[in-house]
């Protein structure tokens, strides 16, 4: 889910497959590995929140000597390749709404983006999650900015480039939107975020990617700027791109059960996590020459890819880890602006050399 040449959902399907086989084995051989629920020691205003860790795997399944189970490995070599990161403050996001979007769905995504810089949200928060992204720096020592701003929006509700897009025509969508909305050429601070509605198909969507990022071509857009694309999977493939709010059929009797989305929107709640994944990778690797693992820049393994499917402590091998559940049964791991709650995957922490998030308990 990174550059156009990356089939990073490979990790995703490995995680799902692992969940099926590992959980089936645990159920057959050791019935004590079932869902665990613990009460949180929290203020009375949120006294009915629980910690939930669906089918936590035993430590013996870990393939690393690290005491941190969540994605840690002595074999992962995330390296800096001397390119820029988005360090100028604020990071300006220019949102392109492609297709028909309802106001509630737009509001949900805006609230997530605005939560990145909201220091007032209670812990664990989206702003705390973003601090991990801000640990990445360029060769001058400038870190990724902690300040993120929605600097502009454009709605293309008439599907100006059709309802089927490709990795190349997404550049046409950006070019048209930038001209129509008179977006500035924001080389230093800016990035585009293209969000397609549930009725728009994309090359490789649901099959190989849920989102990706790259940069614009001067020959098509007129200049080079990083961008990310994420699709709304609610009606096309929620079991792939909105997991764990929807499950593949083959996981019906193995792995964690289907979880209730924090805002009651399976497709858009799932989309929020993918947006978080892609934003973290854009800011740390905007031109595909900064932070990534592996030797092939056309297929980099980035800080979101390394933590695919991990949302809490104890996660790994297809297990999402320990998350929170409110009194309505909705699942989340981060608080956001205006009382919003989100379930967002963790990202790779270069200091811990493991996946981390604000809801970590180890």
Question: Please, could you describe this protein's structure?
Answer:
The protein has 362 residues and is an alpha/beta fold. The chain contains seven helices and 17 strands. It has helices at 9-29, 103-115, 126-133, 169-181, 218-221, 238-241, 266-284; strands spanning 36-39, 50-53, 78-80, 91-98, 148-156, 164-165, 190-196, 201-202, 211-215, 226-231, 291-293, 323-325, 331-332, 334-335, 341-342, 347-349, 354-356. The chain has a five-stranded mixed beta sheet, sandwiched between helices. The chain has a four-stranded antiparallel beta sheet with strand order 1-2-12-13, with no helix packed on it. A hairpin with a 4-residue loop joins strand 16 (347-349) and strand 17. The longest helix is centred in the N-terminal third of the chain and has 21 residues, at 9-29. The protein starts with 8 loop residues before the first helix and ends in a 6-residue tail after the last strand. The model is unreliable at 1-45 and 56-69 (pLDDT under 50).
Provide a brief overview of the structure.
It is built from 7 helices and 17 strands. It has 362 residues and is α/β, with parallel strands linked by helices. The longest helix is centred in the first third of the chain and has 21 residues, at 9-29.
